[in-house]
Amino acid sequence: MLELPFEYGRYRRLRRLIFDGLTGWILDAGVGTGRNIEFYPSGAEVIGIDVSRAMLARAGRRRRLSPASTVELREMNATRLNFPAGAFDAAVATFLFCVLPDKPQLPALAELRRVVRPGGTVRLLDYVRPRRFLRSAVAKLWEPWIAWAYGASFDRNIEEYIPEAGLQLAKAELVVNDRVKLVTARAPGYAERIAFEDWRFESRVPSRQVPRRRLKSSVKRGVLMTQAVGAESRGEPVALAALFVSFLKVSLLGFGGGLVWARRIVVEQKRWVDDHEFAEILTLCQFMPGPNIVGITTCVGSRLRGPFGSIAAVAGFILIPWIIGLSLGGLYLQFAHLAVLRNTLGGLSAAAAGLMIATGIRLLMPHRSRRTALLTSALAFTGMTVVKLPLLVVLLGLAPLSIALAGVASKRAS
What we know:
By secondary structure, the chain is of the alpha/beta class. It folds into three domains: about 5-235, Rossmann fold; about 235-370, no CATH class; about 370-414. Helix content is about 50%, strand content about 15%. It has helices at about 5-20, 55-60, 105-115, 135-150, 230-235, 240-250, 260-270, 275-285, 290-335, 340-365, 370-385, 390-414, and strands at about 25-30, 45-50, 70-75, 90-95, 115-125, 170-175, 180-185. The protein has a seven-stranded mixed sheet. Helix 6 packs across helix 9 (about 290-335). The protein starts with a helix and ends with a helix.
């Protein structure tokens, strides 16, 4: 929701621009939630990749908006593309490299070069550090927050990696003042098409029947079956330090309540769980004593690294923020009588309420096709806000009903 003003005020025009003139097979690296999908070229065959299964699920719901001939979604890491060399006519990446650390920048760009045919196009749209003094000063003020909250940076200079990745820089232009740059590069060589007979893709995202494309080629014949390399990374244990730092961020950035940032970091940024799993954890924590966010911290830590994971996550969430919170609380008690402070906190409370509502809607979205879930949600909302029943009464009353409705729906489905 917070990104909608930027999406409709700035990004939609840029999305049209990045696909202008592209045809054939196109790779959309870092497809995210699928904001690019409705701007895919008419008749093109597009494959979008991302490391987040939750984001791919949201992107899948946007495929019907696309004028492209086919749109396939794959869970895959941009630094390890499971496609053969020269499989695509073009590759695009929208605001991908500004969130990649320095180390994977070159490997990701080299992979895009590898999978694009000779003579093909690679287009990159990303934020850069402004040159003008005032905008540069504002960017420097915002950069610590952007890096802490989103893992992004304005100083990613992808152009310096283009020759090393084996690409030829064709054009680099600023498209939003001096803050957003569109870079166009080309793969050297003759425009040869590498095609595959019986080219199949096995989707890990719930979708319609995956089409088969039979392509003729005098260059090479074979069969390609993509696999999700994101699963490989999930098989590696999460570092305890990563749990500590992530929940430290949740606590320090907890404007609007820790739940908002817990979901953003755990689901969207780290991709440790998806929306459905996060909703299950939240449901469990509603029945546990103590604050929900502490329960979520404990459950996520335990799920990823067992008891030591819980200790690391809770320590990150409590220790440093507890010291800061006590200090700020003491200051507030001394100056609580100031009108400007009361007005400021009143405005922040309204914004925090909006963030909580937005998070609640996002948690409900995966279940929007289930009538029983919508009914239970409506009853809970009515009981809490209209009838003003205590939370425990609503939970104890609706839990048996929800379980019974789910059982009936499961029997009907079977």
